[in-house]
């Protein structure tokens, strides 16, 4: 195996985040793997900030994410692929981040710095309403508590020192960030939660790129470095197929030279591609650097994710001649680390 310059650093982050104890949405769950008689396991995960801040630009506003730490776990069978594409994952109380919101319109009131902290474990998935958990946001000195629970028909919200809790449907809460008639504290809480869902979807995309690497290792090694390996995109009804190419960019020095694997750098390039692995459209680049994958028990996946003006949407992006300026796009860097544990740890 190659010398792993990423292993100690990446797992060190995971150890810090999990002490005491990474498409966007996939059309099929990895829980459908044929894992009969496989023992149950727990998988710890962490998604963290890197040297280049993660940015999400929606055209009307831009979000810069810092001090990021998404931490949690999920239950699986030992033979399952490492993926957050589960019915839900548990986001624990080590999860926190800060978002600086900068609107395109200088007169927009949705501007400033909001922080999010999980205060009770959330059963989370980006296309699913949580059934339990709590997080708080802090904006301009005011704390907003957002709660999910069986006693609620939606999400419970308490702003500042209010003595009563307000209830919103999850759909209304998600869209509150763009509602000019909503209070600024609720809008900022909604905005921060939207960023959380975006980060989760980026992790799913990285996982699907990892699967592309594993499925096409022989072809990558046969083609060599910096050669594009063309892969299929899904053709939407009445639409065009788009394009997707996988590139093996760096073969890290060590005993595994010549083999696509640990320590290497890869990139996938999209052109208005409807990606079956995530069910969303992409245009731009995603790089997985310092790649680490251990397929033996206990499994591990660790990687630096580099996003280069990656447009993503649930509709066609229209990449020719170029995506529109108001298309959602992502830039920056994240660190992802998944580590399989024994169920009875």
What is the compact description of this entry?
This protein has 4 helices and 17 strands. With 345 residues, the protein is an alpha+beta fold.
Query: What is the strand tally?
Result: 17
Shape: globular
Overall average residue pLDDT: 86
Fraction in beta strands: 35-45%
- SS summary, helix count: 4
- What is the string of helix and strand elements? HEEEEEEEEEEEHHHEEEEEE
The termini sit apart by 28 Å
What does this structure look like?
With 345 residues, this protein is an alpha+beta fold. It has one domain (7-342). The protein has four helices and 17 strands. It has helices at 7-17, 170-175, 184-215, 217-223; strands at residues 40-49, 54-57, 61-77, 89-91, 96-103, 112-120, 122-124, 133-139, 142-148, 155-159, 166-168, 228-231, 243-250, 265-275, 280-294, 300-313, 329-342. A hairpin with a 2-residue loop joins strand 8 (133-139) and strand 9. The longest helix has 32 residues, at 184-215. The chain is globular. The protein starts with 6 loop residues before the first helix and ends with a strand.
């Amino acid at each position: 195996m190659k010398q792993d310059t990423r292993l100690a650093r990446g797992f060190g982050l995971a150890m810090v985040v999990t002490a005491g104890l990474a498409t966007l949405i996939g059309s099929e769950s990895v829980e459908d793997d044929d894992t009969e008689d496989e023992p149950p396991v727990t998988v710890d995960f962490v998604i963290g900030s890197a040297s280049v801040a993660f940015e999400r630009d929606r055209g009307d506003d831009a979000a810069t994410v810092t001090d990021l730490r998404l931490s949690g776990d999920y239950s699986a069978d030992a033979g399952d692929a490492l993926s957050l594409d589960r019915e839900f994952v548990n986001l624990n109380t080590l999860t926190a981040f800060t978002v600086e919101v900068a609107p395109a319109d200088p007169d927009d009131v949705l501007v400033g710095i909001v922080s999010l902290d999980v205060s009770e474990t959330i059963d989370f998935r980006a296309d699913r309403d949580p059934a339990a958990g709590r997080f708080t946001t802090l904006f301009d000195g005011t704390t907003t508590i957002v709660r999910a629970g069986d006693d609620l028909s939606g999400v419970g919200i308490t702003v500042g020192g209010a003595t009563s809790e307000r209830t919103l449907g999850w759909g209304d809460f998600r869209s509150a960030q763009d509602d000019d008639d909503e209070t600024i504290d609720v809008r900022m809480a909604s905005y921060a939660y939207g960023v959380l869902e975006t980060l989760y979807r980026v992790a799913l995309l990285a996982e699907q790129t990892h699967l592309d690497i594993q499925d096409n290792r022989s072809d990558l090694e046969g083609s060599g470095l910096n050669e594009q390996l063309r892969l299929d995109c899904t053709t939407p009804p009445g639409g065009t197929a788009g394009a997707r190419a996988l590139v093996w960019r760096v073969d890290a020095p060590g005993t595994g030279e010549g083999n696509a694997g640990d320590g290497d750098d890869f990139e996938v390039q999209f052109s208005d591609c409807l990606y079956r692995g995530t069910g969303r459209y992409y245009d731009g680049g995603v790089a997985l650097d310092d790649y680490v994958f251990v397929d033996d028990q206990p499994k591990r996946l660790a990687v630096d994710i580099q996003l280069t003006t990656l447009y993503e949407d649930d509709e066609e992006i229209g990449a020719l001649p170029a995506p529109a300026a108001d298309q959602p796009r992502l830039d920056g860097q994240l660190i992802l680390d998944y580590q399989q544990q024994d169920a009875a740890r």
